[in-house]
Amino acid sequence: MTEPRWLSESEQEVWRAYQTATKLVGESLDRQLQRDSGMPTTYYEILVALSEATGRELRMSELAEFTKSSRSRLSHAIARLEENGWVTRRSCPTDKRGAFASLTEDGMGVVRAAAPGHVNEVRTVLFDGLSTDQVKQLGEISAAIVAQASKGCPSDPCDE
Amino acid sequence: MTEPRWLSESEQEVWRAYQTATKLVGESLDRQLQRDSGMPTTYYEILVALSEATGRELRMSELAEFTKSSRSRLSHAIARLEENGWVTRRSCPTDKRGAFASLTEDGMGVVRAAAPGHVNEVRTVLFDGLSTDQVKQLGEISAAIVAQASKGCPSDPCDE
Question: Out of A15, A128, A148, whose CB is closest to B128?
Fold first, then answer.
């Protein structure tokens, strides 16, 4: 390895503030969803992705990409959501590219019931503390991070 | 509950970009640490916090706060780090406020060996994609989120 590219003192401060901020936001949202809707954030993200898809159905590989989950983690979550009656799975006999997950009416009801509290929490922990300029900057910074982080990624991030 | 405070379309975009960006950064760092140092990010954060403490030792409650971990998750991690010989635990007979964790020489060696690759990854996925202005903005935004998110928090976030 070449000479390490250490962070300057001010970069270290930014990095620590970023770490604390993202942890606090994640924890607040986890806590709110668990308390008010009895589910972890990953489950909610899966349900929302399905609720927004055409026919409320997605290929498992698409769902893994939307939710940035590994295949094994996603399969586990989908199995639990199926037990709850919120999602159904079907495999397509003419398409070897795999199984589909669909949102049930019950699942859609769960999304509708959970959304107001979740969005309110997103506002409270994130947007309420930022100026209009900062919200815009956060969007641009996030897009730049996504572009940068995606550079080194394989085209299909889903591990079997 | 009062009328839900829905996000505008542009706020939704910012929120999604934020979610994707923070997930990608987290995953890149997890992957790098697991690949090059054989440990999850939480373990690395614990070792770093101890390495920077006076006498390379911290009260478990301090460590929980530094790493924003629940007590149970932290205890589990410390037990594993102790098995590896990187950390030792001791309880203080005159102080009922609990146990201390110390970094061993081996543990310090692990931090020293892991740090260059980790810092390099932080640069690659985060700082390299941002302008100097954006780094400054990210610091300010993160500080504002921390201030906002901390408003509703209890003074001691550690659950037993």
Answer: A148
